[in-house]
């Protein structure tokens, strides 16, 4: 079962929706972790930064847009075979923004219709939690990946009424 997790690293992930036209803004990651995959915009926290501050900053840095609203919709805890550090990814849903999505050093933004989301070119977990996300349902997920980061070996996903500030490792379902 799962892996022994010694610590977790918080990260942000912002997904921007055009609800009127039923479209989602994704970015092709051009470098680093998850490169050559479409994903939302986000990354690590800088020293002294809160999760929400990091979410806004990363969206501005990677897509050149400023979110007007930001709803924390879920947390996904990712573990990998033979790695004691879990990634705690705080997922945000934004429906209004200022500016024009623009290609940056890290990401190439592109809009996709809800029914044409390129799951084959995304992380394997995305097709599992996106349906909850698109419906606006709050969730907590755990995904345990193979060492090569390609396959999900175990997973747990549940709707919650409220998303906690952080993922309580003592409550892990895959422990
Ligand atoms: C493992 O499964 C994942 N699925 C999804 N959908 N997203 C994930 C997964 N693992 C990580 N992420 C997200 C979380 C972040 O938004 C990015 C990774 O951020 P990165 O490591 O690139 O952080 P930066 O601060 O931008 O990195 P630089 O140091 O390169 O600026 O992926």
TrEMBL record:
A single GO molecular function term of this UniProt record: metal ion binding
PROSITE patterns cross-referenced by the UniProt entry: NUDIX
Function in brief: Oxidized purine nucleoside triphosphate hydrolase which is a prominent sanitizer of the oxidized nucleotide pool. Catalyzes the hydrolysis of 2-oxo-dATP (2-hydroxy-dATP) into 2-oxo-dAMP. Also has a significant hydrolase activity toward 2-oxo-ATP, 8-oxo-dGTP and 8-oxo-dATP. Through the hydrolysis of oxidized purine nucleoside triphosphates, prevents their incorporation into DNA and the subsequent transversions A:T to C:G and G:C to T:A. Also catalyzes the hydrolysis of methylated purine nucleoside triphosphate preventing their integration into DNA.
InterPro entries on file: 8ODP, NUDIX_hydrolase-like_dom_sf, NUDIX_hydrolase_dom
Subunit text: Monomer.
GO cellular component: a single term: cytoplasm
Entries under PANTHER family matching the protein: 7,8-DIHYDRO-8-OXOGUANINE TRIPHOSPHATASE, OXIDIZED PURINE NUCLEOSIDE TRIPHOSPHATE HYDROLASE
EC number: 3.6.1.56
Record field: catalytic activity: O(6)-methyl-dGTP + H2O = O(6)-methyl-dGMP + diphosphate + H(+); 8-oxo-dATP + H2O = 8-oxo-dAMP + diphosphate + H(+); N(6)-methyl-ATP + H2O = N(6)-methyl-AMP + diphosphate + H(+); N(6)-methyl-dATP + H2O = N(6)-methyl-dAMP + diphosphate + H(+)
Family: Belongs to the Nudix hydrolase family.
The Nudix hydrolase domain, residue ranges: 7-135
Key words of the record: Hydrolase, Magnesium, Metal-binding
Enzyme class, first EC level, given as a word: hydrolase
Biological processes per GO annotation: DNA protection
Protein name, UniProt field: Oxidized purine nucleoside triphosphate hydrolase
Cofactors (names): Mg(2+)
CDD domains, per database record: NUDIX_MTH1_Nudt1
